[in-house]
Write a structure and sequence with these properties.
- With 163 residues, the chain is mainly alpha-helical.
- It has helices spanning 2-24, 30-63, 69-96, 103-122, 130-156.
- It is elongated, with a radius of gyration of 17 Å.
Length: 163
Amino acid sequence: MRTTQAILAVFAATAYGRVARRAAFADGDACIAAQALADGIQSNIDLQTGEQASVEKVKAAVSQNPIDQAAFTAAKSQLLDFVNAGISARENNQAIAPAGNAAVDGLGIVQNAQAEELNLAQSLTGAASDLDIVSQLETDFAGGIKQNQQNKVDVSHPLLSFN
C-alpha cells in the first residue's frame, strides 16, 4: 500500500509540475495554456486507468469465497487513492482552464461523475453484494475516460478552444 501511495505521489507531483510550469507561461499565450490543460487532462486519464485497475482488484477480492478481506481492504484503499488523485487533477485542470475554453463544460461533467464515483467507492463494504457497485464503477470509469478524451479534443481544437 505504501508503494502505491508513493507511486501516486510521484506521478501527481510530476504531472502537476508539468502542468504548473506550462500554466506559468500561459499569460496571453493561448497555445501554451491549451497545452497545459491538455497535459492535465491526460494526467487525469492516466489516473482513471489506475482506477480501472484498482476496481478490478476489488472485484477479484469480493468474488472469492470466502472473501479475502485483507485483499479487499488494500484494493479499496488503492482505489480511493486513485479516485482522490483524479479529483485533485481535475480541480487543477479547472483552475488552469482559460476562460472560454471548450473543455470547461466537460470538466464540469467529470466533476459530477467523480463525486458519484467517490461515494460509490467509499460505500464498498467487502461483501459479495459489492459486485453491483463494482459494475457501476466500471461503467463510470469508462465513461469518465471517454469524457476526458473528448475534453482533450475540445481543449486542443483551435476553432473550439477559445472564444
